[in-house]
Each structure stands twice: as structure tokens, then as C-alpha cells.
Fold these 3 entries.
Entry 1:
Amino acid sequence: MKLGGIVQKKYLILMLLFLAQILNFIDKTAINFAIIPISKELNLPTEQVGLVLSSFFLSYAIMQLVGGYLADRFGMKKVLSGAVFLWSAATILTGTARSYISLVSSRFFVGVGEGAFPASTQVAIVDNFQKEVRARAKSVISAGASVGFMFGSIVVTLLIATFDWHLMFIILGVLGAALAIVLWFLLKREEKKVDRSAAASKSIDKTAIKKLLKNPLIWKLMLAAMFTNIVFWGLQSWLPSYWVKVKNMDMVSMGLYSSVPYVLGFLSFLVSGWVLDKFLAGYEKYMFIGGAFFSALFIYLMFNTESIAIAFTYLSLSNVFLNAMNITVFVLPLKKIAEESVGTATGIINTGGQIGSVLTPTIVGYLITVFHQNYNAAFMFLVASSLVVMVVGMTIQSGKKESSSAVIE
């Protein structure tokens, strides 16, 4: 293949991953807005609302190790297109839910599909980009999360207001199933090298997993991922209810306001990847430390102001630094872990992250209930969690010489 064809191929794959990430996070954010009318229609108490939100993350966490292995073993095409189709089918089932049990069950299977997605993107980056530019490639895909949240907050609230939450989920599921089919056929020709279902170079042996688990960096990144996800999903899961119930915002205006932080979030992902590649190679810990400190600061300021406009300004700023924390967690494996183990390493790290995701909605719901619908204690829990990431960042070795010892070859 000519050089131009190779370059065109890798950027086509990057664009497809970016689009899939957008849809992924539109689906993720949908339940956080829909849970308001869902809880009214199904008469769900706060504790059950927390369990509905957590059910997705339970299966999502379970799938991290499995998804990482599948991505390493079978390649990105099969895992990615299959994952998108599965979570989209389960999203359609969410729209047909008529009880608490059916709602929890459908959300569980959405998590199964989406859980296989992150590791496959990591494998695709390793297969198509050199180490020197992987942070930027990762930042493009990660930026899709902000785009998904930005448009998701508007599209989801408008669909709910225009139709209802049932049809909103069905529409998103149909769109996702269509994208899965497109991904399968577009990647079929392009991914001959990436899809290595029979290639021994992508097989995972037992000793590789043992080596990964003996690496201190993996455990530190697992811990950082866990508390980063606590902050992120604590905000995503409960802020819509906070704006409506505490700040008395209507659904549509809340959705429009909620899109604003993700505009800055989109830019922050791209800038963070560029900074990590250009200026912080070997010193990524400082992105952790600074991001965690300022994220905690702006979350604290957010819930201590009366003005809705100022509160969303602080939320936007906290989102910028939270994204810097998040991308650093997943850039380090791209640079420090042997290429044949990146998918599995990502799965292990993301398992730690999803432990936080599973626990957070329920913990936050419990705190809100215990403090009689006062959200301040819940927000302080998120502030403290962000500061834990700062402490973890301080323990990571800096400098190119020291950080090279973390590589698993």
C-alpha cells in the first residue's frame, strides 16, 4: 500500500472511532436526563434511581478485562462493530421498559456492549499511530465524549420534551444499530492488518497478565481511574436532578445549559493530548496533580454559588481539568506498556475506573437521602475524590529515565 493510502486509512479509522465515541456518550448521557421522568412514571425512590444508574456500570466494569482480551485477540473491527450493535439493541430495549426490573436489566446489557469499546480503541491507536503522536490520537477520540455529551444534553432533552423518554431511547438505539452496520462494512476492507483474529502476535499469554499485575504503575492508574470516574459519573449522574429539583430549572433550559461545559471539554481534550506529547513526555504526573486540584476547587465553587450562570461557569472549568485527569490515565499505557498488551492493560485499568462508576451513583443517592435531599455532602464527596487523584499523581515517578522502568516488554 502506498504511503498516502496508509495515512488515509489510519485517519479514516480515527474518524470512525471519533463518531462511535460521540454516539457512545450520547447513549451514556441519555439515562441521566431520562431518569427524571422515568422516576416519576415508575414511582422510583432515590435509592432505586441510584441502582438503575449503577446497573450500567456493573456490567461495564465486568466487561473491561473481557473487552481488553477480545480487542487484543481479535482486533478492533469485530469487537467495535459488535459492541456498538449490542449496546444499541439494549438501548432500544430500555425504551420498551415498563418496570424497575426491566429497566435495570436493559441498562445492564447496554453496559455489556459499551464495556468492550474502550480497549478496542486503544488497540486501534497502537496499530495505527507511533508513540510520539498517540496522545494526540487518543485526545481526538476522547474529545468525542465531550461532543456526545454536548449534543446529547440538547438532543435527549428535546426528544423527551417533544415525544417521551421511551421513544427517545428507541431512536438512539436505531441510529446506533445503523452505525454498527456501517462500521462493519467500512472497516472490513481497511482493517486487514488490524484484524488479527488468527495472529499469534496478538494472543495473550498468562505470564503477560501476571507481569501487568506486578507493575506498580498499573495499580496506580487503576486507583486514579477509579476516583476520576467517581468525580465524573457522580456529576453526570446527579447534576440533571440537582438543576431541576434544587435550582428549579426546566428540562429544555437545563439541557441547553448542560451543553456549555462540553464545548470547553472538547477543546480541553485536544489541548491536553498535545501538551502531553509536546511538553510533558515523562512528566505526565503533573497533568494529574494540576487537573485534580483545580477540578476539586471548581466543583466546590460550583455548589456554593447561588447564580445558575456562575455555577455552570465553574462546572465548565472543572470539566476542563477533569478531562486532563482522564486522558492522562489512558495515555500512559499507550506510552509505557508493550504494544501487544495495551488492550489488556487498558481493560485492567478501566476495571478500576468502573468500580468507581458502579459505586458512585448509589453512594451519591444514599448521601442525598441521608441528608434529606441536600446535595452538598454528595458534592463534598466528589471534591475529596478529586483530591485523592492528586495524591496518586504525586506517587508516580517523573522523568523519562525513571518512567521507562514501567514499560513491560
Entry 2:
Amino acid sequence: MPLRDALVVATVCGATTLNVGAFLLSSRKTWLPDEIVHQVFLSGALTVAIPSIGKDLNITEANLQWPLTVFSLAYGCTLLLFGRMGDIFGGRVMFLVGSAWFSVWSIGTGLAPNLASITIFMAMLGLGAAANTPAAIGVLGSHFPPGPRRNTAFGILGAGQPLGYILGLILGGLFSESRATWRAIFYVQAGLGAFFVVLGFFQLEKQPTDSQLYAKGLDWGGALLSTAGLGLLTYALAASASAPRGWATPYIIGLTCASVILLILFWIYESWREKKGAAVLMPPSIWKHPSARMPATIGMVFFAWWNFNTLLYLCALYYQQVNGLSPLQTSVRFLPSIVCGVATNLAGGWLLNRVSGLSLILGAITMNIVSALLFSLLQVNAGFWKISLWVMILLAGADLIYPAGTLQVASAVDNDSKSLAGGIFTVATRLGSSLGMAVSTIISTTLSKHFQSAHPEFSSSDPQVLMVGFRAAAWSLFAAAVISFVIALIGLRGIGIIGKPDTKPVPEPEPKPEPSAGSVETMV
């Protein structure tokens, strides 16, 4: 890869690697990543640093979820908006602005003195992450022409996330137990972010004047409806796990119904505006693009991440609540999955140039199917090396779906919608993860309660009781992965090599006939 291309990839991957995934405090009182697809620097750091933050700022365990919840809300509900803005103003502009914003508020978060300030600053961080994540996909899709270089770039983009998680995991543990404290995590993040902003300013190409941008302007009505709908849905999914009666809690039902109504209105409104030829935030016609296969790609990704992130969540619960391991010991158990994820992404960038995209995607989903099946067979006292290790290794299959999926949507759509396509892809991974987490929590809690009722000699926190629910939840994840497999098998059939350049010969213009003697042209 030429030096200029390598610097572009390093800039985009480096900045997006800093973006933190959402975290939550589950009803089981265990801090765990909600969206481990963003296995990045701050996610890894906060895995071990969250207790230190609560202790230093005198935040109760019940309130410690708020800084992370508002990050998730700010990030999830503005992805479509910022994705479209990237197509309007250029991916380079949105990427640099979002990364700079993220760096500035990282400093503020590190200086936060109390709950209110860190909650506000984390919300600002979420906006910066939402701005540069879709733009990153648009930048790579526009900078690299279809072919091996683009496929390699998207493979490296996926590999940067688990690498960032490892770095955050190590530094988070070191800082939390040193005089630097947890605040150094945010200062390091701000410094790295500023470095990538400067590097991007000089290395990312400015948008040419003749480039194809979305010229119709911003659809403010669509932005309002999508932001409100996604925000309410994100909050309802996150809050359902800790609500008094789960999904049956009245305010959860109300929020969910309101979000569904708003999203339906968003679709109707966008269809109406597109027919008029007016500006639209997300044109419904993008779902009919013949090459993008958007319904199949997004559906496949939705259920794949339902399986992937929720199974990682169950694994963490299993290590901490059944095996009795500390958060740091639990993090070490994730290293095989992270290392395999890096290798899978890098290998995927190479394989995407040579192997049918459908074959790679089906193989990756099969790994996740087997991983969920193995987890459902786990026993309370099972050793790590016998089954758990293979669960972690096979989970890395989803890391091959990431570059394949992003490359599929970025390569197929027009240049004026690449950032929007990246936003749609990211929304699908978030919603799939959140809904999978909520459904699995309900299944696990319900089955565990039924088992305890039949066996009152066990307490609710007894590993035997917990494992009944965990195994049942794993079977639901097995089903989600099978659904993803079927969607890919039917909907992505015949896609060939993803991102393959168009090799059809360009027809040569017919030669202009020579004017005959005595014609008008020769006489003139």
C-alpha cells in the first residue's frame, strides 16, 4: 500500500478506534459493555475503570449508569443525521469536526468534578463519535477505488477496534491503580484524537469542486423524526433490562410505542419528500438499490450483532457471576476473541479480493452459530480451556462480517450517500445489539426465576440458577444467528466478490466519417 494511502487508513482507523461503545449497568449489578462491536480504546479502559470513577466522584451505583446511558443516546439517535451531513458537507469535514469535538470533550470528561458534569461531557462525546463514525466509512469508500486496496482498507478499519480495546484494557488497569487515576484515560484519548485530527487535516483529500455531493440540503423534518424515534427506542431498549417489570413496565411500553410511531412517520415523510424531489435524510429508494442489497445486508447484520454482542455479554456474566472472576480476570478471558478478531479482519481484507462475499459471510455466521451452541452446553464448573476458549475464538467470526458488510453498502451506493450508508449500517448494529440484549435478559431472568421457584434451596444468585437462564438465552442467540444465515443465503446470493471493480470494457466512440469532397464542411 502506498504511503499516502497508509496514512489515510491510519488516520481514519486511529480516530474511530477511540470511539467508545455504550456501556450499561445491568440489573445483575455488573459493569459490562453493551455494544462490544466498538471494542475500542475507551471501552477497554472503562471495563476496569468504572468502579474507580464512581468512587472518586462519589457516584452511587444506581446513578453511575447515567453518563454511559446519555453517551449511548447521543450516539445512537444522531447517526443518520450526521451520516447525511457527511454527504452534504463532505466526509472529510465531518470526520475532522467529529474527531476534534470528541478530543475536546475528552479533556472535559477528564476534568469532570461530579455526576452532572461527567454526564453532560459524555453526551458531548457521543455526538463526536456519531459524527466521525459514518464519515469514516464514507471517506474510505470515496478515497479508494473498488478493488484490493479498498478491501484491505476496510479490513484494517475492522481490525483497529479490537486492537484499541486491548490498549484501553491495559492502560485502563494501569491508570486506575496508579497516581494518574482514571482521568488519564481521557487525557490520553484527547491527545491521540488531536494527533489524528492534525494528521487527517494534511492527509485526507479535500473535496474536489466537481465531486458528487448531496446538493439538495438537509431535511430538518426527517432529522427531527429520526432523531426522536431512534432516541426513544434506544433508551427503551437500554432501560428495559433494569425497569421494575421489564418490558411490561408502563413507561417502557409507552416509549417503545412512541418510537415505533415516530419511525413509521419518518418513513412516510421521507417517501413523500423523495417523490417531490425535495431533500431527504434517508431516501427510501436506497433500500431498493440493486447492487447494495440493503434489506438483506442490514437484516443479516442486525441479527448477526444480536448474536455477537449479546453472547459476549453472556460470556462476561458467566465469568464474573458463575466463575467468580474479577473484571480484570474477565477481561483477560476475552483476549483470545480480540486477538482472533484482529487476525480475522486482516485476513478478511485479503480474502475479500479473492473469495465470494457470500461464502465469507456464511462461514463467519456459521462460526457464531457454533459459538452460541457451545455456550448452551457450558456447565457451572467447566474449565476455560475445554469449551469457553472455543466460544471466544469462534465469536471472532463476526469480525469478518464487519468489513464485508461495510464494504458492501459503501461500494454499491453512489458517492452522495456513502456516509449515510455507513450510518445505516452502524444503526443496524446498535439496534440489533440492544434488542438482543433486552430479549436475552428477559429470557434469562424468567427462566432463572422459574427454576428457583421449583428449587427453593438455591438462592437467586446461585450459579446453578443463573446457568439455567444463561443457557436459555444462548439458545435464543443460536436462533438469531440462524436467521442471519438464512437472510444472507437468500438475500445475498450472487453478490460475487464484494467491491470488485467494474471490468466491463468502455465502448469506444464511433469514428466520425470523413467529409466528402464538395460537402458543406469542405467548402467552408
Entry 3:
Amino acid sequence: MVRIIIFPLLYRQETVTRLPVYAADDVLVTFRRRLRQPLLFEGYSVNWHIQGGRILTDRGLETADLSVTGGILSEVKAAHASTIDADGLLVLPGIVDIHGDGFERHIMPRPGVRFDTALALKDTDRQLVANGVTTAFHGVTVSWEPGLRSLDAAKQLIGAVCDLRDTLSCDTRLHLRWETFALDQMAQVVQWLSLSPRPIMAFNDHTTGSVMNGTIARKIGQMAERSGLSRDDYMTLLDQIWSRRAEVAIAIEQLAATARANGNVLLAHDEASPEERVYFRALGAKASEFPLTLETAKAARQMGEDVILGAPNVVRGGSHNGALNATDAVRAGLCTVLTSDYHYPSPLHAAFRLSSPDASDFPLIWNLISANPARVAGLDDRGSLVAGRRADLILVDAGDPAHPHVVATMVQGQIVYSSGLSRVDRRSAQRSPVNRAS
């Protein structure tokens, strides 16, 4: 069922499967363009007072109230704020996902079967907020391959993100995954580095692993399939790309220098050894994404660097391609960030697999999907429920810890998703000025 939720100064369209939050005849609907920011009708937003919930702090979960004024967390309850009764619910920082390419399954759910990019992004947006993700960096691969990860596909996707960003519920950003053998595509990547907000930039090398029969080689069939080539044609193209390997190191150093000067966060993906970590560290890559060996992860952590792994690895009980076990890495202190990777429900579920709300380590585990990725991305305005930060938060019913349920998602003070949030008193809503944030 599709409905329009009407707050005194805003509207939000969403698809739900439970009973409506409000009766359909509450108010008269006036249609206006939705905004990602809580800048509703002449720069005003609804203030909130969330009461009775168990709020996550550094000390653990504490039953307390939380106020939102102008899209920002506040220690002081705004006059005439709307009240949300969160009794029995956990109030948690919104999930910050800095590496996710699940949207690719919305664009191409089957090999060779493509859907409209804007349609795919809008569907992805609904899935993100329904799973508690309030900030998402779409991992856009820029490769030498044709097809789904080609330069043309990246142009189409990035153009659509730029066009739609202000209408999406989740704060949607870009994570440019440049294949280091995509030499002819580098000039376009340089231009994209200047987009606002600044994209994350990651160095990816799936080419060497394919040629040298590494961990990537087993995916050759899948890679050929998504590119629209036969396996033989793909291997012929791979040989041509490999013949230019002498040019790669210089290109990496040039792009790294440009990104550093431009202020982009730099990451290195699939590092195969401590030596590679040293190399990319010198180029400014501040974190190791999906290191291929335990020794590489240790090398990063010994230098106080972040190690990023996939939450699906935790949920499934191991890597689908034989890489590091993320649960073991977390327990050993060798993983500091978990991402959706290819499955948007996984960050939420991974946190509850690794800990439980009453456990002493629950705040540290939740940091893996909130405060830590926000820090890596350079976003110091979110990731924890502290006064002065953005009101990016989720209400979670953890009655069944194996299947935690997101009851509501709030992005900068707007309820952008709800499922079963039937206890909202909005009779005393009042307008409050909102600061426009980029």
C-alpha cells in the first residue's frame, strides 16, 4: 500500500506493509517536491521528543529521552515538539554504509537484463532506509570492462545520483572504485573527484588477481557474464589490458596525488600483503578495504588504521569467496568497520549477531556500522547520538534478536521510513528554523 504521511509541515511517500501511522483522513494533502534535507516549506522542520526508549551511549543502552530541534540532536526539549513514544524500542545511531554496491542488483538483476537507473536508485533508497541506513556511499566501479562496470555505465549512474540526490531519503553519496588498469578511464575519474559532496576514492585491482590465478580468478565467468562478453572474448580483452601493466604504477601515483590535493578520502581495496599496505599508505590511503590476508589486516591495525570488511561475511558465517572471516577479525580487533558490501540488510543484522543489546560490548559493536565508518568518511556530524550532531537515528524492535526490526528511520530530523510506529503525538508540532547542510 502506498500512502502519504502528513506532518504539519511536511509530507513523505513510502511503501508499508503494516497498519498506517496516521489515519488517511487526518489532513488535506498539498503536494510539493520532497527534499532530502529537513528543509520543509520555507525552511522549517518538525521538532521531535523521543521518550521512553533505550538510547545507545558510550556506556551502553540507557532509558532516557532524546530531543531533535531543526534536524539536530539537542539536550533541551523544544517547545511544542511532537512526541514519539519509544517505549520498548532501541534508539540507535543511523547506519553509515561506506561501501555498498547492492544497487547493481536493482540495475541488472539478471545477466544482460537492465532496468532504468533512476528506478533502480529509488528502489535502492527505499531498501536502505528500511534497513536503518541513513548515509550510504554507492560503490561505483569504473573498470576497463564493458557492461555493468563500464565507464558509460558509471557515467549514467553518477549522473542519476547527482540528479536524484536531493529527493532521496537516505543521504546518498559516491564511492568511486577505480580499477587501476582502467587507464583510459582515469581522466573522467579525475573530473568526478571534484563532485560535491566529495566522493570517497578507492584503488581496486581485480586484474592482477585474474591473470595470476589469485582469489579473483574463480570469478572470471561471473565477470564475463556481467560484461556481456563470452568467456573467450573476456580473456582476450584481459590479455590486452594486462599488456599495459607497466603504465599502472604511474597512473596510481598521479591519481592519488590529485585526490589528496582535492581532499578526497582515499582507500585501498583487496590489499594482498603488508607490503601493499605500506605502498598505499604512502600514497594517502587511510584504510584497508577487504584485505586479502590476516597479516595485511594486522599491518594496518598496528599503525592505527581502519580495516573495512563486509557485514554479509558476519551474517553468513564466513566469506563467500574464501577471504578473511569477518567475525574472527572483529573478535581479534582486526576489523573496525563493517559495510553492506552487496547486501543492505546485513549491517544491522551483523551487529546483533556479534553482540546483544545488554552486552557490555554492544556500543563498540554498533560503532562498526555507525561512528567508525563516519570517521573514515570524514563525516564528524553523525555516527553517535550526541547533542549538536545530525538527527540520523533508527528505532529498533529487538524483541527477536535474530531478526531485529527497524520500526522507524530518521534522517536529519525527518522520519523517512516507518513500519509499525503507531505511537506519535503530533498535536503540538511547531516550526523551527533548519540549517541547510551539504
